[in-house]
Amino acid sequence: MGALESIILECFDDLDHMKKRTTFRFIAKNFMVDYRQRKEEERERLTQTSSRGPQYHVVVHLRKPHAYISQSIGAGGGGDEKEAPGGALTTTAVYYVNTDEQYTTPASPATIAHSPSVYDSLEGCDLFSGKWVHDNDSYPLYKEQECPYIPGEFACGQYGRMDSKYQQWRWQPHACNLPRFDAKQVLEKLRGKRIMFVGDSVNRNQWVSIVCMLQAVIPPGRKKMHKIQEVKQVQDVSLLTFKAFDYDVSIDFYWAPLLVESNADHPTKHKRTDRVVHIHSIEKHAKNWVNADVLVFNSYLWWGTPTLKILYDSLEDSTKYNVVTNHRAYKMVLRIWSKWVRTHINHARTQSYFMSMTATHHKGIDWGMQDNDNCLNETEPVTKEHFWESGSDLKMMRTLELTLKNLKERGVDVKMVNITQLTQYRKDGHPSIHRCPRYLE
Fold first, then answer.
1. Is 73 exposed, middle or buried (0-12, 13-18, 19+ CB in 10 A)?
2. Sites in the chain below the pLDDT cut of 50
3. What is the pLDDT of residue 293?
4. How many CB atoms are closer than 10 A to CB 123?
5. Of 9, 49, 311, 439, which sits 20 to 30 A from 83 (CA to CA)?
C-alpha cells in the first residue's frame, strides 16, 4: 500500500562527531516532549558548536509501501500463520535533511517539503492524527518485482493480488506535512551505522521494506543479504543482515517474537497451538542486540492466546510451569526486557524504540461487513476517523506505555512509535491468501 506508518524523529549531529553519537528525539506530543524547552537547548548548543561545521536535521520516516510486506497472524491475533485470514501491517524508512541547505516547499502532494520550514511547522503537530491520502504520483516507492529480497510470504502481487491501489497511499497529518523518503540521503547519513529490528513478523515486515527502499539505489555487487543461524540445543536463532558496502551500513532483523526465550524462537518452524516462554531467559537473544546504533523493538501478535505457560527453569524441563493470562505474561516479560535495556545498553550510543501494536482486521463487522468476513478482497482503507477494530487490545498497549514510562523515570528513554491508529484504517493492507501456498498450510 502507499505508506503504513508516518512518523518523524529528529536528530542534530555534529559532522565531526557523526559516527560517535546521535541523539534521536520524537517531535510529537505523544512522547511528552517539551518542544519549546528543547528548542532553547538546541539553540544554545548550536551556538556553542557552530565553529565545528553544519548541523543536520535527521528525519526517520516510517512508511509501508507494500501490503505484501506482511505476515500472518492467528485467528486470536496470536501469530500462527496457519490460521491467519490476513496478515499484519507495517514498515520503515529513514530520511535525512541538511538544515543548512535551502529548499522550496512544493505545492504538489507528490513531493512533500524537504526544508527547515517543515521542521518549524511541526511545533505542536500531532503526527498521529491524520488520514490516508491517495497519491499515485509518488507512490509506490518501489515495485515488488524490483526487490529481490521479498520472500514468498509477502509477495502478494506474485501470488495473485490483482489490484494495486493499496500501494499508493501516504499518511497525511492534519496539521503538518512529512518529508518524502530519499534513499541516497538515508544511506549517506547512516554511514557506519547498524540498525536492528527485533521482534515478530511486524518488525520483519518493516525490515524487508526499508531494505527494498534502500537497495534500489545501490549498484549490483555493492550489497548483500546475510543469513546467520546460531544453533543452540534444539533452537535456531535467525539474524538477517543487509549490507550496503559503500556506506558500511548494516540493517538487521532478529527474530524474537516474545522477546525472551520461547517455543516460538525457531525462525520458520514456529507454528504452535500453545505459547511457552522461559520468563527469565533473555540473554540468548539479547546478546545479539548490544552493538546496534538504533534498536527498534516490537512484540504483540504472539500474545493473543488467552493464556501462556511460564517456565522458570528451562524450555527442556517443561514440567515446571505456571499458566497465566496473556496480559500478566506480557507484563512479566516487559519487566525482564526493561531491566535488560536499563543495564546492558550503552545509551550514549544506542537509541531505542518500541513499536505499538498493529490492527489485525479479522472481523468485517467492524467496518460494516458480515460477521464472518475479514480483510480478504478489501481494496480501500477505512475512511471513518478514529475507527477502532474490536481485535485491538488496549490493555496490552497500556502495559507497554506504563513500562516505557517507568523506564523513563529511571533515566532510560525508549520511545514508543505509536502506529496503532494509522494501521486501524488499512483493512486493505493485508496479503490475506495472496502468498506462497506453503504459508497457507
1. buried
2. 1-36, 38-39, 42, 46-120, 230-237
3. 97
4. 12
5. 311
The C-alpha atoms of residue 261 and residue 252 are separated, in whole angstroms, by 19
Q: Outline where 226-306 has alpha helix (H).
A: 283-286
Report DSSP state, residue 225: E
Alpha-carbon distance of 71 to 335, in angstroms, equals 27
| 321 Cβ contact list (under 8 Å, min separation 6) | 276, 309, 310, 311, 312
Q: What angle do CA 378, 379, 384 make, to 5 degrees?
A: 85
Q: In terms of Cα–Cα distance, which of 24, 415, 408 is closest to 193?
A: 24
At 397 the pLDDT is 94
Pairing of strands 294-297, 351-355: parallel
Residue with cell 497525511: 172
For position 378, what pLDDT does the model report?
78
pTM, whole model, 2 decimals? 0.73
And the C-alpha cell for 229?
Answer: 543461524
Rounded to whole angstroms, how far apart are CA atoms 235 and 237?
Answer: 7
Verify cis geometry, omega within 30 degrees of 0, for the bond prior to 140: yes
Residue with cell 512544493: 106
Distances (CA, A) of 414 to 76, 198, 285, 295, 355: 28, 14, 19, 9, 10
First CA to last CA distance, the chain: 25
Written as one letter, the residue type at 133 is V
Residues contacting residue 255 through CB under 8 Å, at least 6 positions apart: 200, 204, 237, 238, 265, 267
> Each residue of 294-334: pLDDT tens digit?
999 999 989 999 999 999 876 666 678 899 999 999 999 99
Q: How far is CA 118 from the centre of its chain?
A: 23
Strands 9-10 and 25-26: antiparallel
What's residue 280's pLDDT?
A: 87
Quick one: which H or E segment has residue 163?
Answer: none
Domain boundaries of the chain, sorted by first residue? 9-440
